[in-house]
Structure formats: structure tokens, C-alpha cells
Amino acid sequence: MTTRSRIFYLLIRLNYIFTAIFIAEFTLKLIALSPIGYMRDNMNIFDGIIVIFSIIDLSFVIIILGVSSGIDLKAFRSLRILRTLRVLRVTKLLRSLEFMKVII
Predict the structure, then answer these.
(1) Per-residue tens of pLDDT for the chain, all 104 residues
(2) Structural domain of residue 22, as residue ranges?
(3) Structural domains in the chain (count)
(4) Burial bucket for residue 55 (CB in 10 Å: 0-12, 13-18, 19+)
């Protein structure tokens, strides 16, 4: 196995792990806040959309790796960039903290 293929499979495994963590967070928030309470916050809606796209992307990856159908899913791969936007939640939280207003 080449180094490139090892890295590829490592990234796939990490994708599984992070998607599972995000699904667990999504599920726990839905249970704790109820669907209506969850939808009141725009960042929760954003997170929910990212989790749904992650589930779709993950299912397509499983199908492609399992069946090798040759379907090109570059559109869904480009949606992975939305995951990085989750970092914006942290900046929103930091701005809301009183002692961070001095730094920011």
C-alpha cells in the first residue's frame, strides 16, 4: 500500500469519526431542545444542514467504495467546505463572552 493510499484511507476513517461526532451532537441537541427549540437558533439550523449533507456524503462514499460504481460526486465533495464554517460558531461564542471583548 502506498503512502498516498494510506493517507486516503486515514482521511476516510477520520471523516467517519467526525461525522459520527456531529451526528451525536445533532441528535442530543434535538432531544434536549426539541425540534422547535432547535430551529430557533440560526447556527443550529446551519449545523443541522451540514450534518445532513455529511450523512449524504458519507452514504455516497460508502456506496462508491463498496460498489465502485464510478459515480463522480465532486459537487458533494465541495460541500465539505461548509464543515470548516462551523468554526464561525466559536468566534460567535468568543464575542459573546465579556472578558473576550477586551481582546477582540
Answers:
(1) 788 888 888 887 888 888 889 899 999 999 999 999 999 988 888 888 888 888 887 787 777 766 554 455 555 566 666 666 666 666 666 666 555 455 54
(2) 3-103
(3) 1
(4) middle
